[in-house]
Specification:
heterodimer; A: mainly alpha; two-stranded antiparallel sheet; B: about 90 residues; about 80% helix
Chain lengths: ~180, ~90
C-alpha cells in the first residue's frame, strides 16, 4: 500500500489520493458489502461516506491512526454498514445537504435551502472558509491560493467572510422561520 | 482589525477551544451578561456547520467524478467485472 502511505502525508492532491483508494480499496469493500447482501449502489454509497470520514479525520485533521489507511477505511465501512444493518435500515448515505433541522428561536429552518442560497450569494467567501476550516489549509496556503499579499490580509479576509456568512445565515434563517410560523 | 472582526476572532478561538484560563472565563462571563454576544456566538457556530456541509458537498461531487472515471476506464474492465460479480448471485436466489 505504498500509495496510501504517501497520500496520508497530505502532500498529494486529494483527487490522486481518491483515485488510488478506488483502485486499491474499493474492490475489497464491494466484496464485503456483496457478502453482506448489499447492492452495488449501496457499496458505492458506503465507500463514499467512508472516504469522506477518512478525508476529514486523517487527511485534514492529521489524526494519528495506528492502522494502515486501508484498514482504517475498511473499519469505517464495516461500522457504517453494520450500524445500519443491525438497525434494519436500508443504507442512507451521509448527506452533506441533508435537512438538518435545527431549532432556531422556537422555529425550524431548512439548512439545505439556505446552503443553496449561500452558495450563490457568497461563493468566494465559502470557498475561502472551506479551505481553512474544512480542508485545514494553512494561512500561507490560503494567501497563495486566493492571491492575498500576506498571511495577515488572508486572516482579515477570513474573518470578514465569517462575518458576512454569519449575518447571511441569521437573516435567511429568521426569514424562513417567518414562513414556517 | 476593526472591533467586530476582533469579536469574531475571539469567538472563533473560543469555539475551537483555543481560549485558556482568564481569557476563557472572562468571555464566558460576558456571554451570560451580553445578549448580543451570545447571539453572535450562536450564529457563528451555525456558520461553521454550513461551511462543513459545503465542504462535504464539494467533496462528494469530487468523489462522484473519481468514481465515474474509475468505473468508466477500460483499463479497469477486469476488476470492475470482478466487483460486479460479487452482487450477481443475489438475482438467482
Amino acid at each position: 500500500m505504498e500509495v496510501l502511505e504517501v497520500c496520508e502525508k497530505k502532500a498529494v492532491v486529494p483527487k490522486d489520493l481518491f483515485r488510488a483508494l478506488y483502485r486499491e480499496v474499493f474492490p475489497s469493500v464491494a466484496q464485503y458489502i456483496g457478502k453482506k447482501g448489499g447492492t452495488f449502489e449501496q457499496a458505492k454509497d458506503v465507500f463514499q461516506d467512508a472516504l469522506i470520514i477518512y478525508y476529514e479525520q486523517v487527511v485534514c485533521h492529521e489524526k494519528v491512526i495506528k492502522v494502515s489507511g486501508l484498514a482504517y477505511i475498511f473499519g469505517v465501512v464495516k461500522h457504517l454498514w453494520n450500524h445500519q444493518y443491525r438497525l434494519g435500515i436500508n443504507y442512507e448515505p451521509l448527506r452533506s445537504d441533508r435537512e438538518i433541522v435545527d431549532e432556531v428561536a422556537g422555529g425550524q429552518v431548512s439548512n439545505k435551502r439556505i446552503l443553496a442560497l449561500l452558495t450563490k450569494a457568497g461563493d468566494r467567501c465559502l470557498k475561502l472558509l472551506k479551505a481553512f476550516y474544512y480542508d485545514k489549509s494553512s494561512m500561507t496556503e490560503l494567501a497563495k491560493q486566493f492571491g492575498f499579499r500576506s498571511e495577515h490580509s488572508a486572516t482579515v479576509q477570513k474573518f470578514k467572510c465569517l462575518e458576512k456568512i454569519r449575518s447571511f445565515i441569521k437573516v435567511k434563517s429568521l426569514h424562513y422561520e417567518d414562513f414556517i410560523e | 482589525m476593526r472591533t467586530s472582526l476582533n469579536e469574531i476572532s475571539l469567538l472563533d478561538a473560543y469555539l475551537h477551544n483555543e481560549l485558556m484560563g482568564e481569557e476563557k472565563l472572562l468571555l464566558e462571563a460576558r456571554l451570560i451578561i451580553e445578549e448580543q454576544l451570545k447571539d453572535h456566538l450562536f450564529w457563528q457556530r451555525q456558520s461553521y456547520r454550513f461551511v462543513r456541509d459545503y465542504g462535504r458537498q464539494n467533496l462528494r461531487e469530487q468523489l462522484q467524478i473519481v468514481e465515474e472515471e474509475f468505473l468508466g476506464d477500460p483499463r479497469n474492465e477486469t476488476i470492475i467485472q470482478r466487483i460486479k460479480s460479487y452482487f450477481k448471485k443475489r438475482r438467482f436466489r
